[in-house]
Amino acid sequence: MTIRSAVFTVSSPSCAKCPQEDRPEYAFIGRSNVGKSSLINMLTGVKGLAKTSGRPGKTQLINHFLVVSEVERANHREIDEWYLVDLPGYGYARTSRAARDEWGRMIRGYFLGRQQLVNTYVLIDSRIPPQRIDLDFIQFLGTNGIPFTLVYTKTDKEKQREVMGNIRLMKQELLKSWEELPPMILTSSLTGHGRDALLDQIETINETIKK
Ligand SMILES: Nc1nc2c(ncn2[C@@H]2O[C@H](COP(=O)(O)OP(=O)(O)O)[C@@H](O)[C@H]2O)c(=O)[nH]1
Ligand SMILES: [Mg+2]
């Protein structure tokens, strides 16, 4: 899949205010500072599309980016349009109780109500063992039957042995509650590792839902 363009479309305060067209959409979520904005920029190839760093945990909006991609199917070029959705991260230490409640309302509203959502990418820091807050979020998705993929970030920053150890621990945790493991993709926004794997998955899903 080749990305032809990726542009910011709109920020919405709730699911009800999100774009109404029925383009498929892919949501990105994870702990603040996990590398979500960097990954979005790496995937689209548009530097500065999503704001990196700055003040973590500040954005409490649902951000839609319209992506136009091109793919070779059965000997002809096809254009696909889909949304990449940047959601506010969780687990930012300095947020108030009220802000956390509001985040929870918005996130539940989005995940339980958004018809266009076809897959969610839950970003996990590959340098650390499984965190309660990530497991809780995964539990929420699993319980509600919302399909997701685990995306390990910052794999360039840690020895591969450590990364694989953290992934093994995550699998062990998940197998306590679930019979099946979600797809997992290892990424680095620095090196571009995992870009093709992730875009290939989106391409496959785009293709499936057309039928
Ligand atoms: N080395 C390395 N640093 C990363 C990577 N992804 C993000 N970072 C850094 O981690 C910090 C937080 O990244 P950001 O994308 O803003 O995280 P967000 O809060 O989840 O959107 C920034 O300083 C990034 O430069 C990565 O894959 N490799
Ligand atoms: Mg960010």
How would you sum up this structure, described in words?
About 35% of the residues lie in helices and about 25% in strands. The protein is built from five helices and seven strands; from the N terminus they run ββαββαβαβαβα. It has helices at about 35-45, 95-115, 130-145, 160-175, 195-210; strands at about 1-10, 25-30, 60-75, 75-85, 115-125, 150-155, 185. The protein has a seven-stranded mixed β-sheet with strand order 1-3-4-2-5-6-7, with helices on both faces. Helix 4 links the parallel strand 6 and strand 7 (about 185). The protein is globular, with a radius of gyration of 17 Å. The structure holds guanosine-5'-diphosphate and magnesium ion.
Summarize this structure as a short list of keywords or feature phrases.
single chain; 211 residues; alpha/beta; 7-stranded mixed sheet; 5 helices; 7 strands; 34% helix; binds guanosine-5'-diphosphate; binds magnesium ion
Shape: globular
> What sequence of helices (H) and strands (E) makes up the elements?
EEHEEHEHEHEH
Task: Please give the largest β-sheet.
Answer: 7 strands, mixed
Give me the secondary-structure category: alpha/beta
User: Can you tell me the residue ranges where pLDDT is under 50 for at least 5 consecutive residues?
Assistant: none
Small molecules (ligands, ions, cofactors) in the structure = guanosine-5'-diphosphate, magnesium ion
Helix content estimate: 25-40%
Strand segment count: 7
Strand order of the largest sheet: 1-3-4-2-5-6-7
Q: Approximately what portion of the residues adopt beta-strand conformation?
A: 25-35%
Work out the radius of gyration. Answer: 17 Å
User: Average pLDDT value?
Assistant: 93
**Total DSSP helices:** 5
User: Terminal Cα separation, in Å?
Assistant: 18 Å
